[in-house]
Sequence to fold (180 residues):
Amino acid sequence: MPAPDLRPLTGEPACLDLLNTQWLQDGEPRDLLTSTQGLDTWLASNGWDDRFTADGDTLERTLLARDALAAAVSSPGDAAAASRVDAILEHGRIRATLDTEGPGERAEFANPAWGPGWMAVRTYLDLLRTAPDRIRACAHDACTLHFFDTSRNGTRRWCSMAICGNRAKASRHYAKTRES
Fold:
């Protein structure tokens, strides 16, 4: 049974959810992936806990994928970051399938320990194909979280309006009242 997921933002596409395994809480850095138990929690949050094993080998490779994604998201178009992402993608492939339900696809890995990281990186490619301009970092200075903007007009700025958006509003209000 996975431990409770204490991250402030969950439910994002797997690539951003993997990045969000690192966050700040009360100004202190937190990291869900410091143990295989944390990996098990992350796998469960993405519905992969029955497909992949939360062991040291998988954790190590998932951390490599997280680092590659962090480089690519923070520096879009950077050749070195793209190369790091591509290096992760070399460890898996998509196989076309046909079953009674019709055509489909299945991810395959020579080493299943690459699976979770590879799947997360693959979702990044999907986001880049559909709406790369909607992959965002939270606009709050003290937040390290990322999200995929699904708002109608594409103007979401905060990982959470209740947390970071409210903090920004409170800061602006405090600054205005202090000036008065």
